[in-house]
């Protein structure tokens, strides 16, 4: 669902995919090859939200801010399921883990990885290439080249997903029986632990 608010109409590049069950409101600019999952709420009612090229905002995420603030999710940012970005700026090629909360005026530097369920307090500045975990979140080490390689490969899958959704996603009635020839999807991406073992 795309909503105009007080004369502001979201701008969504034609190569991006916003799921019909997501809500994008007001002063929102979504760049190329972005994926916005079902249940995501991106509310540009009180300020501008810029989502740069190649960003994914996954299922049930919220992106919002206090009145008069504007925020940017920079190129290739990866916002995991259920995360909340409230008035924070997210750097290039960052991974925000599932159910993480990042509060107002926080800045997450480029190529950081923020672990699942972390809580980043307001006005926290995280230097680039930091691994951040906990509640309250703290930097525990630097992100290695191998970790960034793993993250980037995962984000690439999401950058391919908009085109795949445009080509094949459609509402249907469910089958009533499992077909005999039903295939299981192939594994195309490892967990970080499995990736690091290779």
From TrEMBL:
<dbReference type="GO" id="GO:0016740">
    <property type="term" value="F:transferase activity"/>
</dbReference>
<dbReference type="InterPro" id="IPR011004">
    <property type="entry name" value="Trimer_LpxA-like_sf"/>
</dbReference>
<dbReference type="Pfam" id="PF00132">
    <property type="entry name" value="Hexapep"/>
</dbReference>
<protein>
    <submittedName>
        <fullName>Transferase hexapeptide repeat family protein</fullName>
    </submittedName>
</protein>
<keyword id="KW-0808">Transferase</keyword>
<dbReference type="InterPro" id="IPR050484">
    <property type="entry name" value="Transf_Hexapept/Carb_Anhydrase"/>
</dbReference>
<dbReference type="InterPro" id="IPR001451">
    <property type="entry name" value="Hexapep"/>
</dbReference>
């Amino acid at each position: 669902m795309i909503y105009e608010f007080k004369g502001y109409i979201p701008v969504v590049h034609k190569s991006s995919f916003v799921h019909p069950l997501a809500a994008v409101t007001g002063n929102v600019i979504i760049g190329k090859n972005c994926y916005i999952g079902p249940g995501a709420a991106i509310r540009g009612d009180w300020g501008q939200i810029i989502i740069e090229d190649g960003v994914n905002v996954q299922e049930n995420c919220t992106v919002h801010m206090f009145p008069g603030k504007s925020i940017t999710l920079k190129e290739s940012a990866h916002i995991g399921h259920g995360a909340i970005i409230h008035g924070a700026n997210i750097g290039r090629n960052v991974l925000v883990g599932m159910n993480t909360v990042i509060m107002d005026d926080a800045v997450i530097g480029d190529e950081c990885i923020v672990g699942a369920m972390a809580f980043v307090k307001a006005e926290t500045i995280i230097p680039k290439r930091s691994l951040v975990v906990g509640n309250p979140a703290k930097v525990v080490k630097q992100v290695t080249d191998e970790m960034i390689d793993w993250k980037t490969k995962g984000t690439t899958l999401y950058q391919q997903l908009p085109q795949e959704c445009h080509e094949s996603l459609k509402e249907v009635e469910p089958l009533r029986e499992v077909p005999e020839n039903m295939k299981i999807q192939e594994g195309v991406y490892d967990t970080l632990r499995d990736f690091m073992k290779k």
